[in-house]
Amino acid sequence: MTSGTYAFQPSVADLVLNAYGRIGLKRAELTQQHMADAATEANFVQVEMASRQPNLWMSELYTVALVSGTATYTLPARMISPMAVYLTITPSGGTAADRILMPISTFEYAALPVKTQTGTPSQYWYNRQVAPQITLWPVPDDAATYTLNLQILSQPQDASIPNGVTPQLPFRWLDAFTAALAARLADIYASATIQAKGPSGVTDLWAKAERAWQIAANEDHENVPTYIIPGISSYYGSNR
């Protein structure tokens, strides 16, 4: 007989208690200070997870209505990096069509001789400030209505212990989150059992956390073919 349910989604508080259990601290031993430190470390775990990219479950579609003559747009601070950027072009009285935009680096944008050139945007520079900015080139003109679509990776919502809040994590990442949290808490509150093992005790927890991360990360990808196409147009385009 099976459970017939798919509801395993423990709260942040439950994962914190489990993390403390992994380092040998019983629930009756935990104080308010333990829980305050755990809340901070749980959010640091999410910072690390967001920085190690990609986290496909944190992908969202964000759209911007472009303004003629305006090249740069400020995005919400939660946005980390774009996965795909494409432009919806709607000509007056015509049918809307999408066009992928290609990324360029800070150096490549700086090298553009006429940054104010107008036209249909074909490239973008993603400027990773606290509130990131995206700059388009050519600068949007008024020949059509343009909508910028960004499939972008965002940071997760804050991890909170009170009120049974669940982490913004899919099922496949729960163990990686808890293992990393346990390793971090062991740096602060290593129990007598962990301490008896010496430095190898905490090191072992970090090794387990890395193993859990690798298992989850290996699954967190798109199952699609990869194509490598050489860019040879600049060599042969002028001879055709």
Brief overview:
With 240 residues, this protein is of the alpha+beta class. It has helices at 12-22, 32-52, 106-111, 174-189, 192-196, 199-219, 233-236, and strands at 59-65, 72-74, 79-91, 97-100, 102-104, 118-119, 123-127, 133-137, 139-140, 144-154.
Order of helices and strands: HHEEEEEHEEEEEHHHH
- What are the low-pLDDT stretches, counting only 5+ consecutive residues below 50? none
The tally of structural domains comes to 2
Distance between the termini: 69 Å
Return Rg in Å.
24 Å
Q: Please indicate the percent range of residues in DSSP E strands (runs of 2 or more).
A: 15-25%
Mean pLDDT: 90
Tally of contiguous helical segments: 7
User: How much helix is in the residues?
Assistant: 25-40%
How many runs of DSSP E, i.e. beta strands? 10
Task: Please outline the major beta sheet.
Answer: 4 strands, antiparallel
Structural class: alpha+beta
Strand order of the largest sheet: 1-10-3-4
Large-scale geometry: elongated
